[in-house]
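Q: How do we represent a protein-ligand complex in a form that can be generated token by token?
A: Start from the inputs.
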Amino acid sequence: MGEAERARLGVGMVGYSFMGAAHSQAWRTAPRFFDLPMQVRMQVVAGRSQTAVAAAADKLGWEDSTTDWRSLLTRDDVQLVDICTPGSTHVEIAVAALEAGKHVLCEKPLANTVAEAEEMAAAAARAAERGVLAMVGFTYRRVPAIQLARRLVADGRIGEVRHVRAQYLQDWLTDPTSPLTWRLDKEQAGSGALGDIGAHVVDLAQFVTGESLVGVSGIMETFVRERPVAASSSGLSAEAGTGTGPVTVDDAALFFGRLSGGGLASFEATRFAAGRKNAIRLELNGSKGSLAFDFEDMNLLHFYDDTEESTTAGFRRIVVTEPDHPYTGAWWPPGHGLGYEHGFTHQVVDLVEDLAAGRQPTPSFADGLAVQRVLDAVERSSEKGSGWVTLV
Ligand code: SOE
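Then emit the structure tokens for the protein with alpha-L-sorbopyranose bound:
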């Protein structure tokens, strides 16, 4: 498509730390590797400190910077607001942006509470009537092997889903002297491992199966309840200041649930799995076969076809880098794998294509709200001694 025919998509991003950097590389890279139907402009980034946000703009490739995120809402050169800030700020920024007629991409989890997520989903539904669209950033959906897994499930290759086994394992908090960053503060993060990483595996389980959780039972724990306060932080790391403060979120959450198709699902989210850096493990067992994935080996999908002759049947290791695999044709020759950042890039590609077509991008804010309801149900279950909590 020629330059003149492509509508302009000016992006204003709020936040520029870990997620902001990941989103920036995606906005920068997507138009260079994919033929996008809109002209993406990295217009402006907003942050709290003038010097820091100006330096971030320079480093990450934004044309302008500001300390006032509200100024994005009145700028004619901004058509989309990308929210990369802690969960406590999502509702205010997203609702204001949608009401100002700006499309929104919002980092996960959608919000810190169900009430906030409901407000955001309602604002998104109203905005959609005016052609203003919103998406929540569950990026791991855009990993090629995950897309392939969903396709195989939808094509009936594993039959009826009996089990989903989902784990998100990290270890960046095993050191008890690791300081209190915002992710350990309920006011800012809403919850701990549950919302930060458990939200991803809830979304993945529902996305890959095409089903939803109808009830859950959970248990949560905070292993280290007091930590040094942070003098400064960047992404997941921080410098300790003087004194200590309470950890107000969970360090780990375990839960299980029933899927709408009748299958059973189990989940584990922890930042205390020593040696597991960013292991997202998803295994599905169906009436005709199984699928297994681990993000620490993200270019592979394991497929077991139970309809094959038993003497030669076995897990097949699919290297998901062929030109016909989802997204991979735009990148490198087969076998030259992709990494963490590509999920963010694919998210931009899909979002821009949907915006250009006037289509609702997925996951929508309604999908984000559905995940939020699961997180809330797990917390309520844990509070009442792991009792069953019904959803829907
Ligand atoms: C920290 O646990 C974190 O950065 C999450 O917040 C992200 O969503 C995940 O992609 C990586 O880990």
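The first strand starts at residue 7 and ends at 14. The chain has a mean pLDDT of 97.
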